[in-house]
## 1
Amino acid sequence: MSSTKIVRAHVGRTPPTLGRVVVACAEREWHELPAMMIDCALREAGYDTTLLGASTSPLRLNQYLQDLGPEAVAVSCSVLGALPAARRFIEASTASGVPILVGGPAFGPDGVRARALGATAWAPDAQSAVAAVAALPAVVGEVPKLPSPVVAELAALDTGHHRLTEQILSSWSTAPADGPVSRTFAGEAIRQLLHAVAAALLTGDPRPGPQTYGWIDELLAARKIATTADGALAAATVAALADLPLARELAGRHLP
């Protein structure tokens, strides 16, 4: 038995005395451990928790909202690529009047992205999550719809993700060309950069772009295969977003 299962079994022996909370990872989020830690912390505090686990679909969350009628939902999101799904979680939860707590590295070091997405509350860690759940209102209103131009560009970034990645890779003049491993690595770096652009577009927080760009530069430099210091990657990304004016403007303004 894993250590996590042992902890869950231990806290599970505590009889629940508080409300029911559904805990899950946003769809496309496979880092389950943070959600499990939140689940254990809430269970130990006396909440009756249901852990849905990694990459939970909004449809599955909706089903549990209807079947269980929880007092709250808690969502963990570590990667930027899962933030659009986290927004769908927020829409589903608040449409049912259920407050929703969010947390994880994808939301950044503060509550800016959480507020932008319409979450009821944000917490930086498991213990803070317990306090945040205790302070949630009993009922919340549905979050406002995202602006149509933002929705359209987010959909285009999602459906065109592979094409845009290949276009940027082929245009990136200093992209690594010394073997399939290096090109695969560069392709993954570009995919993460596109996720960062989408996250900035979704939340209005420009920080994911330069943060991801800096991360790419550090990793490439460590592998001695390329750097982004000449701005070629930023230029190739901006050019590839020519048909998406909002995303292009964000990339052009905030990528180094």
## 2
Amino acid sequence: ATDGHRLSLATAAAADLGNLKLDEGVILPRKAVAELRRILDGDQNVDLAFGRHHASIRKRDLSMLFQYVDGEFHEYERVIPRGEMHRATVKKDHFLRALQRMSLVSADRTHGAKIDLRPGELRLSANHPDVGEAVETLEVEYQGAEIAIGFNAVYLLDVFRVLEAADVEIELKDGLSQGAIREAGNPNFLAIVMPMRI
């Protein structure tokens, strides 16, 4: 899923794909995805069926049918960073709580938060002319070059709130390129957040 400023990519194994072929993929309506999320709460198996113009989902005594969105999905693979990346590993809970505190100060239209990354340390800061400034330093596993980059704090909060792993990897190329966020040890989820000037 993407809105042009951020992207989430998740993969999951299916027990039985049968003759399912979705090489070109399908686009699901936003409201249908919200309803699916509500229905899929828990560990129960569900049956998905994809037709030419619609998809259906069955879970016990519940069935739902929805039409695809007609159009082309963004070429999201172009947004995924390639090449040499600088990787920092942070404790999810520590970073999430620091972000929540930063968002109180960055509560203007842009919600800007700055990350300064240096070996062993991540400095998170936000500044608002009417509210003041907040700065917090976290210990991280990082041995690369110093990088300073800005992000929308709300976008980062959205990602960190859904992560389940205790350790999270933040991958940065430089101070101007999109950042990648992954759960440590989980290759099935990737979030991309576009940078902003602070």
## 3
Amino acid sequence: MSKSAEIIPFNPLDKKNLGASVAEALVSQPVHQLGGLTTFFGSGIYAIYYRGPHVAYGPVSKPNQADKDNPTIPIYVGKAVPQGARKGKVIPAPTKSKALFGRLQEHAESIQATDTLDISDFTCRYLVVDEIWIPLGESLMIAKFSPLWNLVVEGFGNHDPGSGRYNGLRPRWDAMHPGRSWAMKCRQREESQSDIAREVGSYLAANAPPETPHFIGRQDL
């Protein structure tokens, strides 16, 4: 007589399920042009989508081109916490900060600084959320979508390291998409744009996009 499969009761307060509710709320938000955001208040998480003609990103771009009002595969996922949060200081309520808007503006400026990308090909979703849920929501988004600019073409979210710290290697994102003035001061990488593009192709071939962009109602979150 075969044993019955063990049924694990659903726990809505399990950390994974709480995180899934945050991530689901993000992918259900309205889509905005990354280059056309108006000022808003809040800290939280966001996803950036690409739908342009760059050959290396075709497997990511083409599904997003199919429905421009509802892109499904983010090329980058990030978070924006209120000023002082990383240092353990008392932080303001999430609706009193412009951290999320400011972070998305920085990303738009990074894209606009390069000739290899067009800001009109980028859209985004963002979610203002209490600071305690920000890291969990971001980590689940990255785990599900394996965004290229988080895991392969790294460095998109980097900041200017400042004078005297340019002896480090140029971020891979800037090697692929040169243009940010501070990154051009860093040491040149050995990898060429073609090298990184080949790595992107291999990565995409080995990592199929998820069957659904949603989190709720599935066990394989």
